[in-house]
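I have been asked to look over a protein record a colleague put together. This is what I was given:
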Amino acid sequence: MTRKRLDAFYLLLLGCAAFLLFGVVMALASPSSMLDFKVIYYGARSAAHHGDPYARGEILSRYIADGGTLPGGAVQSRIARDVLSMCIYPPTALLFMVPLSFLNYGPAHILWLALLLMSFIVASIMAWDLAADFDPMLAAVLGAVLAANNVIAVGVGNSAVLVVAFCVIPVWCFVRKRFIWAGVLLLAVAIGTKPHDAIWVWLVLLLAGGTLRRRALQSVVVLAAFAVPAVLWIGSIAPHWRHELGANVSALGAPGGLSDPSLAAKGERAVSMVISLQAVFSAFIDNPHLYNLLSYLVCAPLFILWAWTTLRSGRSAHKLWLSFAALMPIAMLPIYHRPYDAKLLLLAVPAAVIFFRYGGRVGKAAFWLNFAAIVLTADLPWMGLQLLVNRIHPASSGVAAHIWTAVWVYPVPLALLAAGTLNLWIYREHCSGRMLCDRASESRPAAPDEGFGQAKFETPVSPQYR
């Protein structure tokens, strides 16, 4: 390593150390400690003992029978009871959890916590390595911010931490051409655990073509090898599991449910808010059918344009990073996601660094929009805001209440939409040959005052994949 790259690596490790420290503190001190882990752990434990993990109340009953208790506060107790009453994980996720389910809860949750922490640290380092070819220090700043602000999900033991890591690590394996089959396996596990997160990364790889498409298809084969026995196993225990799973997912997203994006949601705003576009539209239209439809109508053209651009473009490392940057923010918007799912923005770090270093004025604007999306989905700023709210007690009616609602609800999905839209435009322009040219021999550095589309830019040559 050069001295600059080594200094950047130390900065990244500082962010990872903060993630490790705050994550452990949250796991030990939070009243909702390991709550999400308990769902998948006791769901797998129930299935292993021939119980129906998707039956309403089955997991809660098994948890209480195992000596578990609910938090003392009325709100926290209600949330814990609702979360533990419904399993929303697919059968493959329960199958992956079976080895831990044979352990008592004590050692099982310690192993799970260690797996979450170490996998995300490795993923953060790999994301930095992919972006460090362009600017190691700037990549370290973004990686450190993302890592240090992923503590809430660790505290509740949410599998999103693992899924994000198991999406980033395979991309590194495939691009660097190392540990290929480990990457294929991890991507299959990610899709089988949280498909609404991992499927977007798989889609980028599939449409990228070449070797990456083969890796994506191989991961589907591996996933099928897990999915078939998982479905047969759960089907023999709970013949109506599909209907029960659908009912559980619907109940969580229904008006008043924990995943309800509207202002009437029982779930927390801020730290654990729903960040899909439904949260914005629901403030104006209190009708799930309408605000869901509006979210789909906004996102569908962006997805179609992204897919069309990807299929018609050639293959290079730069286009891969721009493709990730275009899709990852938008992927959070049409369906249910929370801030910890948005840590998939780790895969947008290489493109964000490229924007800042080689993109002129529009590129820097794209960088700051992506940085805003990262900060607005970060845990620590929202935790600070939550403490402030508890002290100042904002107005509950009038103009001040509407302004506060706008500050509280709108920034995250709107920042993701703005960043994704601009990233997509840059991606499309680049694939048309009008900016960020990969071929250094045909490019020249941009002058400081040039616009993004007024020149071709010299960028380092990253490994090509064919």
Notes: The radius of gyration is 22 Å. The chain has a mean pLDDT of 86. Residues 3-258+273-454 form one domain. The CA atoms of residues 29 and 78 lie 19 Å apart.
